[in-house]
Amino acid sequence: MSDGRASARPLPARPETMLVIDDHPIVMQGVRRLAEAAGVAKVYEAADIVSGYRLFHRHRPALVVADLSFRDDGLSGLSLIRRIRALDPAARILVFSMHADPVLVSRALESGALGFALKDAGSDAFLEALDAVHAGRGYLPHALATDVAMLNRSARPAPLATLSARELQILSLLSQGKSYDAIASAMAVSYRTIINASSSMRKKLGVESRAGLVQIAVNRRNALL
């Protein structure tokens, strides 16, 4: 028989272990403190994709929280997501980014992320995203979900929406002034792979030269800042 008091809502089960991959120390510190206060027992930290992948390989955390953009490696978070999912197809990955770009969101989900949260959304939204991804559910803020749906339903998608995750990463590195050789080294692929991808991008974006591709890359970078 009820005593008239509202029953307490059960708290969500939080992951025992979590890996945070972000090259901003303040963000890293904030996420760790928030996660620990929410009941996550162990938080591993990595400031770059190489150490992030190694920590995942060694510890297999229950949840990965990763940024997409890293200072010297462009959108290397996309390739990191693919590598983690190749190692563990059941890995649960939440992207934590400041870029509310539906193209990036779509590519992150295609690469294997289960959710996407924005850094300016506040702690409650972050914990909601963490709980959803840990439970195996997808998570997108409502406005972003609408933008991604519209992007995918458009009869004539925007040119950048036709780029693959790898092509977006190359475009990001071009915006930093990197040469094709440097991009190939950063992405651990052959020079010919970068040349072929750049040729494909020029066709998709309707430009005839590397200079035109670089200009689009710089314009896009400025728009995301």
From TrEMBL:
One of its GO terms (biological process) is regulation of DNA-templated transcription. GO terms for molecular function: DNA binding. Pfam families: GerE (PF00196), Response_reg (PF00072). The keyword DNA-binding applies. Keywords: DNA-binding, Phosphoprotein. The modification 4-aspartylphosphate is found at D67. Residues 156-221 form the HTH luxR-type domain. It comes from the Bacteria. Residues 17-134 form the Response regulatory domain. The keyword rRNA-binding does not apply. InterPro entries: CheY-like_superfamily, NreC/VraR/RcsB-like_REC, Sig_transdc_resp-reg_C-effctor, Sig_transdc_resp-reg_receiver, Tscrpt_reg_LuxR_C, WalR-like. This is DNA-binding response regulator.
